[in-house]
Amino acid sequence: TLSRSLQKHLLFLKFLFKEFDFLDSLQARLNFAKAYNLEFVMPSFTQKKMILENFSHPILKEPKPLNLKFEKSM
């Protein structure tokens, strides 16, 4: 039967489902960001400091832009 043949590959199928869910969530985030003209903040490990200028969190209504400077390791 079909269930017996799939039982042999159960661990592999679980792995596939988990990875598909992960990729699907990434794709959803990218599409959401693209639709609302948002950007992702990626750390640069070559520089010691990170500066965010006029950062506004997208989930807040009428957010006030913030300027943040991270000059020391946290």
Structural write-up:
It is a single chain. The chain is of the alpha+beta class and 74 residues long. It has one domain. It has two helices and two strands; from the N terminus they run ααββ. A two-stranded antiparallel ribbon has the order 1-2. It is elongated, with a radius of gyration of 21 Å. It starts with a helix and ends with a strand.
What is the topological layout?
Layout lengths: L1 H6 L2 H26 L14 E6 L10 E5 L4
Antiparallel strand pairs: 1-2
- Helical residue percent? 40-55%
List the total number of helices. Answer: 2
How much beta, percentage-wise?
5-15%
Structural domain count: 1
Q: Which structural class best describes the helix and strand composition?
A: alpha+beta
Radius of gyration over C-alpha positions, nearest whole angstrom: 21 Å
Shape call? elongated
Q: What's the arrangement of strands in the largest beta sheet? A: 1-2
Unreliable stretches: none
Order of helices and strands: HHEE
Distance from N terminus to C terminus (CA atoms, Å) equals 57 Å
Main sheet record: 2 strands, antiparallel
Overall mean confidence score, pLDDT: 87
Q: How many strands appear in the DSSP assignment?
A: 2
Spell out the key features of this protein:
elongated; alpha+beta; two-stranded antiparallel sheet; single chain
